[in-house]
């Protein structure tokens, strides 16, 4: 999980570029509804804060207006491809290949934080487009509110803790003379972090089933980390732990403290028998 950098361009310019590429009935509808769309853009700008965005209400569009607005995104043109490219390039190179929603997949798709079926006017608004993986995009779907509470973190505006929020739990077993872990994860609120903000994080994890998804991926991550340790060919636990700590510190500087992978790496370092098994 990591904060995203909003694209600081005028969304009206992006809208104009997309509309210019349209023709026929779609173009006529878009030209006729443009002023109303820009009014809604202003509304989004005014409500683009953690406290206000959940209260943003949908408005009614005619069937032809909605179809034209959705056409702007669904039938991709050069202007839309360029906008997506700029959004991706605005992010740090260290996190561009990591889905902010889960930290598992590659963000090859874009989620409409405010669902485009409900808010078609924001279908091509840069602040409503979040690079994400296909799994998260599919699981989130059109759901962003439940009982008036947001279920998904907005990584452009929401606060994130500065300290880890995952506590791995590892039980060790020996199979054919080899130590193998059974790994699960718990979500914990760091000291001093706002409880209301953490409740949103908990809903995000629940909606996207992240703890179970991390558990499913933990085995292969353990294998990768063990291979990294073995490749060091260290002769003492002290030397190996120092090497692995530096590896973790370098990764943390790049991807941040909330990485589920780093939480697991740190937990593995606490178990001396595992480190001894990785010595030459």
List the helices and strands and how they pair.
Elements lengths: L10 H10 L3 H24 L15 H12 L3 H12 L19 E4 L16 E4 L1 H7 L4 E2 L2 E2 L15 E10 L2 E10 L7 H14 L1 H23 L4 H19 L4 H10 L2 H6 L3
Antiparallel strand pairs: 1-2, 3-4, 5-6
Helix pairs in contact: 1-2, 2-3, 7-9, 8-9
In short:
The chain is mostly helical and 280 residues long. It is built from ten helices and six strands, in the order H-H-H-H-E-E-H-E-E-E-E-H-H-H-H-H.
The rough form would be described as: elongated
Structural class of the secondary structure composition?
mainly alpha
- The number of distinct β-strands equals 6
Which residues form runs of ≥5 with pLDDT under 50?
A: none
Order of strands, main sheet, comes to 1-2
How many helices? The count is 10
Residue fraction in strands: 5-15%
* Computed Rg: 22 Å
Major sheet characteristics: 2 strands, antiparallel
Specify the helix fraction band. 40-55%
Spell out the helices and strands N to C: HHHHEEHEEEEHHHHH
Round the mean pLDDT to the nearest integer and report it: 93
End-to-end Cα distance: 35 Å
Description:
The protein has helices at 11-20, 24-47, 63-74, 78-89, 134-140, 195-208, 210-232, 237-255, 260-269, 272-277; strands at 109-112, 129-132, 145-146, 149-150, 166-175, 178-187. With 280 residues, the chain is mainly alpha-helical. The longest helix is centred in the N-terminal third of the chain and has 24 residues, at 24-47. It is built from 10 helices and 6 strands, in the order ααααββαββββααααα.
């Amino acid at each position: 999980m990591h904060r995203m950098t909003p694209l600081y361009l005028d969304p009206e310019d992006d809208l104009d570029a997309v509309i210019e590429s349209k023709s026929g009935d779609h173009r006529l509808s878009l030209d006729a509804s443009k002023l109303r769309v820009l009014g809604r853009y202003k509304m989004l700008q005014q409500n683009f804060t953690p406290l206000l965005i959940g209260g943003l209400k949908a408005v009614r569009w005619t069937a032809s207006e909605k179809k034209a607005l959705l056409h702007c995104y669904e039938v991709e043109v050069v202007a839309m491809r360029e906008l997506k490219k700029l959004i991706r390039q605005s992010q740090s190179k260290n996190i561009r290949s990591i889905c902010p929603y889960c930290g598992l997949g590659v963000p090859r798709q874009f989620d409409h934080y405010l669902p485009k079926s409900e808010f078609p006017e924001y279908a091509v608004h840069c602040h409503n487009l979040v690079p994400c993986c296909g799994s998260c995009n599919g699981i989130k779907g059109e759901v962003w509110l439940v009982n008036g509470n947001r279920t998904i973190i907005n990584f452009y505006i929401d606060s994130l803790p500065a300290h880890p929020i995952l506590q791995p739990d590892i039980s060790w077993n020996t199979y054919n003379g080899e130590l193998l872990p059974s790994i699960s994860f718990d979500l914990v609120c760091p000291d001093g972090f706002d409880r209301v903000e953490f409740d949103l994080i908990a809903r995000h994890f629940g909606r996207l089933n992240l703890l179970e998804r991390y558990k499913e991926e933990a085995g292969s991550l353990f294998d990768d980390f063990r291979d990294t340790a073995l490749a060091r060919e260290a002769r003492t636990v002290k030397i190996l732990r120092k090497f692995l700590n530096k590896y973790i510190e370098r990764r943390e500087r790049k991807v941040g403290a909330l990485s589920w992978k780093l939480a697991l790496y740190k937990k593995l370092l606490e178990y001396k028998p595992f480190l001894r098994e990785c010595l030459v």
